[in-house]
Amino acid sequence: MFWVLFASAWRGWQSALVLVQPDTVLRWHRDWLRRRWARRSGRNRAGRRALDQELRTLIAEMASANALWGAPRMHGELRKLGIEISERTVSRLLARLSRPPSQTWRTFLANHVSALASMDFFTVSTWTGRLLFVFVVLSHNRRRILHINCTPHPTSAWTAQQLVEAFPEDTAPRWLLHDRDTIYDDAGRRRIASLGITEVISSQRSPWQSPYVERLIGSMRRECLDHVIVLSEAHLRRILRTYLAYYHRSRTHLALDRDAPDRRPNNAACGRIIVTSEVGGLHHRYDRQAA
To answer: Which residue among 8, 31, 32, 174 is buried most deeply as judged by most CB within 10 Å?
Structure first.
C-alpha cells in the first residue's frame, strides 16, 4: 500500500528507481532506529562519572615509574592517597597505557650504586711550595667519603694500608674504580683482591670515566682548599677534617635531591633562624630554633 500511494503521488518515480534487496531495506530501517534511539539516549547521560584528567595523569605516571606494579598494587597505593576508585577501573586504564617493558636504567643503576666506590690522588701545595698528596676514597652510595689522608711521599705500601683502613671488616664494595696511576702496582692490586674487590680501571686520559670522585676533588678545591694557605701536613689534615664534617652533615647535593649524605632533616617553617659557621667561616648552615 505504501509503494502504491507513493507511485500515485509522484509520477516521475521511475527516474529515481534503485533496485535493492529486501535485506537492504531492513538494514536501512535498523540504522534509522539505531540513530533515533542514540539521539534520545544522548539527552540524559546517566551512569558512571568520568574520571578526572588529573587522576588519569597520576595513574599514567605511576605506571611509567613502577614497571613491576599491577592493578592490585597500584589500587592499594591510590587507596592510601584517599582516592576512591575501583580496581577494575585501574586495570582497564593500565591496559590502554603504553608501559615500559622493564625497569628503567636509572632504577637499575641505583640498585647497584651501593656496590661501587672510587679512589684517586690529588695534590696540594703548602705555603713553602712543598707538595702534599691527598688520597681519597668515595662511596657512590649517598656520596660518602669513606677515607681521606695525606702524605708527602705516597708509596704502594702506604696506599694499600689506606685501603685496609677505608674498608674495615666486611664493608668493602664489590667494585673499585681508579685510574692508571703507577702507584697501583702488583702489591696494591693483590691487597685489593684480598679484600674481595674487583678493580675497574679507567682508560688513559679519561677522567670522565670516574666522574664522582673527580667532582668531589673539584668541590674540595673550589669550596675550601683554593681559599686557604696550607701551612703544613698537620694543618692540611685539620682542614680536611673540618671540610668532611661540613660535607657529610650540611652540604646539600643535587644528586641526593638536595640532601646531605648524612640526611639533613627539613625544619618546619617556624622558629627563629640560627646561623652556624662552617669550615672556618667559608660556609654557613641555617637551621630553625626548636619551639
So the answer is: 174
